[in-house]
Amino acid sequence: MDRFLSNFVHNIDSKGRVSIPAAFRQVIAARGIRELFTMRSLTHPVMDVGGPELMERFERQMDGEDPFGEAYQDLSIFAFGDGAYLKSDSEGRILVTDFIRTHTGIKDRVAFVGARGFFQLWEPDYFEAYRNEARARLMAARSGARPAGSPPGSPE
After folding, report:
1. Most buried residue, 41, 106, 110, 156, by most Cβ within 10 Å?
2. Which pLDDT does position 92 carry in this prediction?
3. Per-residue confidence at 59, pLDDT binned at 50, 70, 90?
4. Which domain holds residue 104?
5. Sheet of 47-50, strand order
C-alpha cells in the first residue's frame, strides 16, 4: 500500500482522540512518515493531513514565486503559519484539537478520506453529502447531462 485510499468513520473518545485507520497507518509506515502535518483546506471545511510530501508540494510552488512577493507570503502563511503538527500516540491515535474542530465542524466522529498522497479529516455528514454531489457531477459530465436542479446553460 502506497496511497491513502478509501474512507473510514471513527468515533472520537472522551479525551478527544481518534484512531487513524489501520490502512492509513500502513501507508504512513510504508512511506516512512514520522511526523504528520495538517492544514485547513482552502476549498472545503476539511483538514489535509500528510507527511513531508504534503509540505513539499507547497514548497515547490513557493520556489516558483518571488520570495518578496505577496503570493510567496500567502503560501508561506498558509502552509507554515496556519498549519500544525499532529502527534500520534503508540496506539495510532491523534488528538482532534480545537484547530481541527473549528474549521471542520467535527464533533464526536471523524471521516478519514483518502486523497492519494495525503488524507483528509471531514465531518462525516458533510463528507457523505459532498461525496453524493461529486458523484452526481461526474455522472452528469460523463453523460453530458446537467445535474438535477441546474438551470439550462449554467455551469455545473
Report:
1. 110
2. 93
3. very high
4. 7-143
5. 7-11, 109-114, 119-122, 47-50, 36-40, 83-86
In a domain, 50, yes or no: yes
C-alpha to C-alpha distance for 114 and 1, rounded to whole angstroms:
12
Has residue 153 been placed in a domain?
Answer: no
Higher-pLDDT residue of 155 and 82 is 82
Count of the separate structural domains present in the chain: 1
The reply to whether 37 falls in a domain is yes
Terminal alpha carbon distance of the chain: 34
Determine, yes or no, domain membership for 22.
yes
Amino acid letter at 116?
Answer: R
Amino acid at 58: F
Cell representation of residue 111: 471521516
Residue among 38, 4, 8, 42 at smallest CA distance from 110? 8
The separation between CA 64 and the C-alpha centre of its own chain, rounded to angstroms, equals: 24
- Say if residues 118 and 53 touch (Cβ distance below 8 Å): yes
Q: Are strands 47-50 and 83-86 parallel, antiparallel or unpaired?
A: unpaired
Q: Of the candidates 104, 108, 148, 147, which has an alpha carbon nearest to the alpha carbon of residue 126?
A: 104
Cα torsion 15, 119, 102, 110: sign: negative
